[in-house]
Amino acid sequence: MERIRMTDIIPLIGIPEPKYGRVSYNVPCPCCDDNPHKKHLNIHLEKDVFRCPRCGFSGGVFDLYAYYAGINRKNAREILYARLNLDSDAPVRKPKSYAPIDVVPECPITDVDTRHDTYSALLSKLSLASDHRDNLLSRGLTEEAIARLEYRTTPVIGNSALAKQLLGEGKYLPGVPGFYHTATGEWSFIREDRGILIPVRNPEGKIQGLQIRRDNVSKRKFRWVSSVGKKDGTRAEGWTHMAGPPQETILLTEGPMKADVIHFLTGQTVLAVPGVNSLTQLKPVLSYLREQGTQQVMTAFDMDYMTNPHVQNGYYSLAALLSEMGFQYGTYLWNPAYKGLDDYVWQCCYRQKNR
Known about the structure:
Layout: H1 6-13, E1 24-27, E2 41-44, E3 49-51, E4 58-60, H2 61-69, H3 73-83, H4 112-124, H5 130-138, H6 143-149, E5 152-153, H7 159-168, E6 179-181, E7 187-189, E8 195-201, E9 207-214, E10 222-224, E11 241-243, E12 249-254, H8 256-266, E13 270-273, H9 282-291, E14 296-299, H10 309-324, E15 328-331, H11 341-353
Parallel strand pairs: 12-13, 12-14, 14-15
Antiparallel strand pairs: 1-2, 2-3, 3-4, 5-8, 6-7, 8-9, 9-10, 11-13
């Protein structure tokens, strides 16, 4: 008897095909996803199973076919053999060989309105440690600005309790990076290295994701809050961050904290990419800004741009994108004794205030 695989029935039931090389992918759940952009149903092609972490809809090949075809599962095998012209007396087909892997089901990312609502509620339950407050004050921010920006210290205990409180308030956790199911089946928020939580906002001010400025590290000081690799967790994306409203001329820099500080000190609108070579989320934001009247983009990357070929390559890619989209553009330069524009502006402001 030939074995019927998940790949055999996908064309029959009308769900999207997987991308080439993928053994696991997500599609809209027919039981609980009321929006085609939400994709909570995970289909695993190697194991021939499916599962929705949101509503629990799960099973194997015949279960999925029976549901979509609207037939009794008992009849699914016989009907499929007929539809696929398979010989029930033929030897069993061996499945494609894969290297042994421990596959963890993940959730696709949910919409920005939901992420903003959940993250806002999370941040309202957290506080900012005194050493982190002092760090932000030393950058030129005021107490009022720090409160408005909603910076917080990463939670180190009670992460499952936080998730439970959020669920009790009706907040949505599946598909929000940082949240996942523990081994006991409870939702929890990821436990990360101690550091400052930084809300990363879109042009409308909504929180798309969170970054962490980690304490006492020299490499990869900034990292995304993500629950990738955790059960029903979600990966973060390389979102841009915007500080200030759309203006005719904006600055473009690297890192959301740097953008917040520059905007606070200068009043200029600052758009931040997560890295000089992380431009995947930039084009849609630039399109939006162009519609809002932005005409010129001035880059303000750290001054190692002058000597770092890695940064220079990223700048060349950015310049090509800006030119392609019809923006005027240029580059701000300053005293290289100050690495970032935020450092330079703050030192100038500080000196002027103390003359």
